[in-house]
């Protein structure tokens, strides 16, 4: 019950943030401009609209999670309302989880808004409702859930600017970690390859949530992927949230 109350208040606070609507505006603008870009492109224009649209939802959704999430805990500390909260019978884990689920609800609303604009634009281009494109958007939302947990983690011990840089680095590393696998294959057997494999195992692989290419170009997705990716998101997000709670519990606000 406590988590639900904090989540509801967090949602009300987040939807009043002007940055959120600014990002939503630019996301909608990027989605709409994909149609203009398609008209200037030689080839299958529908694929350009879908590809750019999905990429815009992913990028601006990530920016929302990072820029809003990294300030959630810091705002409570900066306004000194954290002292009132921790003096009440509220566990710090409940406080963080409430913040997390409140922001996740906010992102769900924003993602739904971007998805609606995207599907309408695709319909205007193809004259068909392609609801199957909601599947890659759902996987994008799984990624946003993980990014939100990461933003909450950094927000629990750092300033918004540094937290944003850390979370953005996490996002970029997560989408380029596949290059490390290529490096592992080219590294001779030995301690070097072992060390690289250890680093690769720890680093996030956000490409697990990237189905844009498969759905835009009509490629086959293995059925096992629909089980593995959500499970990966659940485990990794749970680990990050547990780490955030551990860090936040040890923090002294006096």
Task: Please give a quick description of this structure.
The chain is mainly α. The protein has one domain (2-250).
Account of the protein in words:
With 254 residues, this protein is mainly α. It has 11 helices and no strands. The longest helix is centred in the middle third of the chain and has 35 residues, at 92-126. The mean pLDDT is 87.
Shape annotation:
globular
Q: How much strand?
A: under 5%
Number of H/I helices = 11
List SSEs in N-to-C order.
HHHHHHHHHHH
Structural class: mainly alpha
Q: What is the residue-mean pLDDT, rounded to a whole number?
A: 87
Number of strands: 0
Residues in helices, as a percent range: over 70%
- Main beta sheet: strand number and arrangement? none
List strands and helices in order, with pairings.
Layout: H1 2-14, H2 18-39, H3 45-78, H4 82-86, H5 92-126, H6 134-155, H7 160-176, H8 178-186, H9 191-202, H10 212-216, H11 225-250
What attributes characterize this protein structure?
254 residues; mainly alpha; 11 helices
């Amino acid at each position: 019950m406590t988590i639900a109350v904090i989540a509801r208040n967090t949602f009300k606070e987040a939807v009043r943030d002007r940055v959120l609507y600014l990002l939503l505006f630019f996301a909608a603008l990027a989605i709409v401009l994909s149609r203009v870009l398609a008209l200037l492109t030689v080839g299958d224009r529908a694929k350009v609209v879908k590809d750019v649209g999905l990429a815009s939802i992913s990028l601006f959704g990530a920016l929302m999670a990072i820029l809003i999430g990294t300030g959630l805990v810091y705002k409570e500390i900066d306004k000194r309302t954290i002292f009132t909260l921790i003096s009440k019978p509220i566990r710090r884990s409940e406080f963080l989880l409430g913040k997390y689920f409140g922001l996740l609800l906010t992102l769900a609303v924003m993602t739904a808004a971007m998805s609606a604009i995207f599907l309408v634009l695709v319909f205007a281009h193809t004259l068909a409702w392609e609801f199957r494109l909601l599947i890659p958007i759902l996987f994008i939302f799984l990624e946003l859930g993980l990014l939100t947990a990461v933003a909450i983690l950094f927000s629990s011990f750092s300033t918004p600017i540094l937290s944003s840089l850390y979370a953005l680095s996490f996002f970029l590393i997560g989408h380029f970690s596949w290059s490390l696998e290529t490096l592992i294959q080219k590294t001779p057997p030995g301690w070097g390859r072992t060390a690289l494999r250890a680093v690769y195992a720890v680093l996030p692989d956000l490409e697990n949530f990237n189905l844009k290419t498969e759905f835009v170009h009509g490629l086959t997705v293995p059925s096992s992927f629909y089980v593995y990716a959500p499970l990966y998101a659940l485990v990794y997000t749970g680990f990050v949230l547990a780490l955030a709670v551990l860090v936040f519990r040890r923090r002294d606000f006096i």
